[in-house]
Amino acid sequence: MEAIRSVEYDRPQGLTCGVGEAWARVPDAPSAERKRELKERIRALLKREEAVLVAHYYVDAELQELADETGGCVADSLEMARFGRDHAAKTLVVAGVRFMGETAKILSPDKRVLMPDLDATCSLDLGCPADEFSAFCDAHPDRTVVVYANTSAAVKARADWMVTSSIGLEIVADLHARGEKILWAPDRHLGGYIQKKTGADMLLWQGSCLVHDEFKGIELDLLRNEYPDAKILVHPESPEAVVALADVVGSTTQLIDAAVKLDAKRFIVATDLGILHKMRLAAPGKTFIEAPTAGNSATCKSCAHCPWMAMNGLANLADVLERGHNEIHVDPAIGLRARLPIDRMLDFAARHKKRVQASGDLAKDATLFTNVGAA
C-alpha cells in the first residue's frame, strides 16, 4: 500500500470551502412557522419548475421528508444516480454534496441539475485532485482504475469503473476473478476493506472521509461493553479497528435494511448521524446510538455529521428553485468519458441485483449484508 499524500481537511487546494467555513455556513434552523412556509413554497416551486428532489440519507431530516412527500428520492449515492437518470423531471434538485450533482448531470446531460449550495463538497473529493490522480494512473498503466463515487467528474473520466459502497465489493471481486490488478481511489479504509474481503491486488490512494475517519475502535469497544445487547452497524469508510467490531458492515441502504431485519432492539451506528432519521422511521421501537468519534477530552471535526451535507437547508433549497441558480455544469468531453465507468457500474448492478436477493433468514441476511460492501 503506497502513501500518496497526507490529506488535510482545511481547503487543501483553495478551491472550495473547508471544514470551518462549511460549519459557519450551515443554515440556522427555522422556526416552526417559517418551516411550514418554506415547505409549502418548495412544494409549489417543484411543481412549477417540473423538478424532483433527490436527497441523500445524510442531509437534514426535513429535506428527506420533503423528498419523500413530493415523489422524490431519499437514498444512497447508487440509487440517487439511478433515480435521477430514470425520472421524467426536467430539473433535478440534488440535496447532497457536489459529486452527487455532477454524477446526476453526467447521467442526464439534457436535464437541469441544481444544488442548494455548490460549495458543499466532500473530503474524499478534495483529497483526490484530478491532475495528481491522473499522474498516479499514468505511473501504473497495467492496473484497472476503480474510483469511488465520492470523486470529481474529472477523476471519474480517468477511471475504468466507478463504484459506490453498495456495489464496490462485488465489482472488485469480479475483476479479481478475471485476473485484473486494481488501482483504487480515493478512500483507503473502504479500499482496504474490499482488499481484505476479496484478496484482490489493489494499490490504494490514501484518502479518507472526514466523518468516518473519526470513529474510534477503543471507544466503540467501551460503548459496546455498556450496551452488550446492541448490534454494531458500521460503514466501511471507517477505520479497520472500527470495522473489526461490527456485526454488520455495509452501505447506508444495507445498514438501514439490517436495522429493520436483525432481531435486536438496540444498535450502535458508525456512520453519519443523518442516517438515524431513516433508521427510526424504518424500525420504530428500536434504539439507535451514535458511535463515538473522540475519546475523553478529545475534539472532533465532524462529530459524526458531514459539515458539507449540513449546508443543505430548506431556505437555500427554496432559493435555488426560485432563482434557478447554483446549476451544475460538467464539461461535455469530461462528461462523456466519465459516463463510461458510471454506466459500467449501473449495468453491473442491474445484472447483479437479479442474482443476489435477501433470503428472509436473518442469519443468512446478516452474512449477506456483511459481505456485500458499502455509499
From TrEMBL:
This protein's pathway: Cofactor biosynthesis; NAD(+) biosynthesis; quinolinate from iminoaspartate: step 1/1
Catalytic activity, EC: 2.5.1.72
InterPro entries noted in UniProt: NadA (IPR003473), NadA_sf (IPR036094), Quinolinate_synth_A_type1 (IPR023513)
Keyword Iron-sulfur found: yes
Cofactor info, note text: Binds 1 [4Fe-4S] cluster per subunit.
Residues binding [4Fe-4S] cluster: 122, 209, 306
SUPFAM superfamilies documented for this protein: NadA-like (SSF142754)
Designated name of the protein: Quinolinate synthase
Listed NCBIfam families: nadA, PRK09375.1-1, PRK09375.1-2
Keywords: 4Fe-4S, Cytoplasm, Iron, Iron-sulfur, Metal-binding, Pyridine nucleotide biosynthesis, Transferase
Similarity remark: Belongs to the quinolinate synthase family. Type 1 subfamily.
Function description: Catalyzes the condensation of iminoaspartate with dihydroxyacetone phosphate to form quinolinate.
Protein's UniProt keywords contain Isomerase: no
Reactions catalysed according to its record: iminosuccinate + dihydroxyacetone phosphate = quinolinate + phosphate + 2 H2O + H(+)
Gene Ontology biological-process entries: 'de novo' NAD+ biosynthetic process from L-aspartate
GO cellular-component term (any): cytosol
Natural source organism: Caballeronia novacaledonica
Binding residues for iminosuccinate: 56, 77, 148-150, 165, 235-237, 252
Cofactor: [4Fe-4S] cluster
GO molecular function, one term: metal ion binding
Localization annotation: Cytoplasm
